[in-house]
Amino acid sequence: MAKPDRHHGLRRERKVKILATLGPASRDPEMIERLLRAGADTFRVNMSHGDHATHAETIAAIRALEKRVSRPIAVLCDLQGPKLRVGVFENGRAVIRHGSHFTLDSDPAPGNESRVCLPHPELFGILQKGQRLLIDDGKLRLRVIRAEAGAILCSAEVGGMISDRKGVNVPDAVIPIPALTEKDRRDLAFAMQQGADYIALSFVQRPEDVAEARRLVGGTSGAALIAKIEKPAAVERLDEIIELADGIMVARGDLGVELNPEEVPPLQKRIVEQTRRSGKPVIVATQMLESMIESPAPTRAEVSDVANAVYDGADAVMLSAETASGAWPIEAVTIMDRIATQVERDPGYHARVHFTDVHPDPTTADALALASAHIASTVTLAGIICFTASGATARRVARERPAVPVLVLTPSSRTARRVALLWGAYAVHTRDIGSFEEMIGKGKRMALRHGFGGAGAKLITLAGVPFGTPGATNLLHVVTLAGDELERHTG
Question: Cα(first)–Cα(last) distance of the chain, in Å?
């Protein structure tokens, strides 16, 4: 009897991917492997916490695991971004009374119940009467009465306890600060040196922010850029940001602070829909299973929240503190895997995920990707095989959200890792092909080796002729796995 292939244990029944954040509770090598086997597909390294030495050890552990299990694993390094914070207080904290006046100024002296330093001079020149300042994730809400060169007088609409270096959100203005701080630039250089597959840009406000990061990352050989949408200003220029980025993250934490809570759900659906139309991956993040930081089980509302993101057709759902610092990291990944798998088994899932009407470009490659999805919904198929060097063919096929999984064969290890974040895609790093016969033979062997059907199974093969030419997808072929091929593979 043939031994079970070790790759099959990491094949997922679901198509949506799980992005797990690593931190103190989960970054040791044994725990990273347990998270992978529990259902995590890619890993996030949060540059807001920890030092470069720790992050280097984490990434090295991921790469060692990748080699051990022979599966490409994407690493996403998330930059902190230009986070605004107040200064310090005389006793480490103070109480701002409801309805009282409170001043944010440029005086570095410790603050009290009536004032505190705001060490961000760029804000003093742009804030206007009536605009809001939200402190400590919106727990305190100030309204500007008067803004001068060195002081901003506010009224406390919602007061309360304030302590040292709490964050400040300014939802009503585009802040004239660089998209990348000096810390971000150092962290970006480190991430590139470590071979990060994705770089997430925090607090993006305008497309120019993505363009600046692109210049630092370099061309197509550099890491892919994920723009985090967490500012109202970014929503206003969403199409331009999507065009310049390689993917989008719906970062609901700060977005939920700067907008009214009821505005976030429809906005999430809009961002997912617009990004899906572009064929670029979209991640839904923040507080998805928040209660599991302390509890071994999620709330019913959290389960519904994850399910809705899956029904919307997001490429990935993300866990933050649940896996980075929570008490139940394995359980959080396990329940997210179970939720996503159950949703995709729903007979109505395929129709719901196609509520978003994507519009292929008038190219041969897009026409063939659309045709492969139509064939998959008409003929019983085991999967779609994509031969790709850049990953573009895989992205085109994934955009159509086909009814079957996508086996992505690529000679590029970087492409194989990036595809790990793509809806429905299962990447294999393998040697390139040079002829039609080689394409058919390799496609069948890889399909059998990785569990894409048995004897008699049909699969679609997509590739470009001449072989080895990026962006030249112009061939669609249906293959059938024969019984003797199965015997040769397992014998």
Answer: 8
